[in-house]
Amino acid sequence: MTDAELVRRAVAGDREAFADLVRMWSPRVLALCHARVRRADVAEDLAQETLLRGFRALHTLNDHAKVGPWLLGIALRACLDWLKASERSTILFSAMRPDQPIDDVLAYESPPDYDAVDEQRRLMEEVETLPETFRKVLMLYYYDDFTYRELADLLGVSAATINARLTKARSLLRERMADCRRTTHGL
Fold first, then answer.
1. Are residues 55 and 113 in the same domain?
2. What is the DSSP letter of 65?
3. Predicted model pTM
4. Domain residues for 24?
C-alpha cells in the first residue's frame, strides 16, 4: 500500500493505517532527530513528539504521497525547537534519591559485557561529535538502511556525495576510536 493510500485511510479514521505509516517512517524520523540533537534519549522523545504532531495534523497534508518528507520536516522543526530552548535539564546521577529502588535497573539475566557497553557508548559519543553533514548521513544510513540513492534524494545531493560522506564519517570514527583505545590502554 502506498503512502498516499495509508494517509487517506488514516485521515478517514483507520488507526492501523497510521500505525503502518509510523512503522515505515519512525526509523527515519528517529535518525534525523538523533543526527540533529546528538543525544539518543532526546532523539527518541523528539521522534515521538514528531509522530504525535503528525497524527494530529495529518488532515492538513495536501499531497498525501509526500507524508515522509512532511514528517521529516516536522521532526526538523521539533529538533530546532529543542535546540533553541533556553532551559533543557539533565537529571544527574548524583541528584537521584538514595532511597530509589534500582533492582529493575540492575536485574540482568546474565552479567553484562561492560567492555562492549563501554565501547558502544564511546562510539555513540564519537558519532554525536561528527560534523552534521557526516553525522546525518551516517545516522540515516544505519538507522533505517537507506540506500545511497534514497539518501541522495532525501538530502538533495548525488549518490557519490553520499558515498564520500559515509566513507569520511567511517574513517573519522575509526581514527577516533583507535585514539580512544590507545589512550585507554596507555599505548
1. no
2. G
3. 0.53
4. 3-84
pLDDT, one tens digit per residue, over 84-100 is 774 444 444 444 444 54
| Domain CATH for 66 | 1.10.1740.10
User: What is the rounded CA–CA span in Å between residue 134 and residue 128?
Assistant: 10
Co-location of 108 and 179 in the same domain:
yes
Asked whether residue 19 falls in the same domain as residue 60, the answer is yes
Judged against a pLDDT cut of 60, whether residue 111 lies above it is answered with no
Query: Distance between CA atoms of 118 and 157, rounded to whole angstroms?
Result: 35
CB crowding 82-104: b at 16 or more within 10 Å, else e: beeeeeeeeeeeeeeeeeeeeee
Cell triple for 82? 529543542
The CATH number assigned to the domain holding 167 equals 1.10.10.10
The answer to whether residue 145 is domain-embedded is yes
Task: Determine how many CB atoms are found less than 10 A away from the CB of residue 25.
Answer: 24
Count of structural domains, the chain? 2
Kindly state the helix (H) or strand (E) to which residue 42 belongs, with its residue range: helix 40-57
- Amino acid residing at 122: R
Give residue-wise pLDDT tens across range 18-69.
999 999 999 999 999 998 888 888 899 999 999 999 998 898 888 999 999 9
**pLDDT above 70: residue 81:** yes
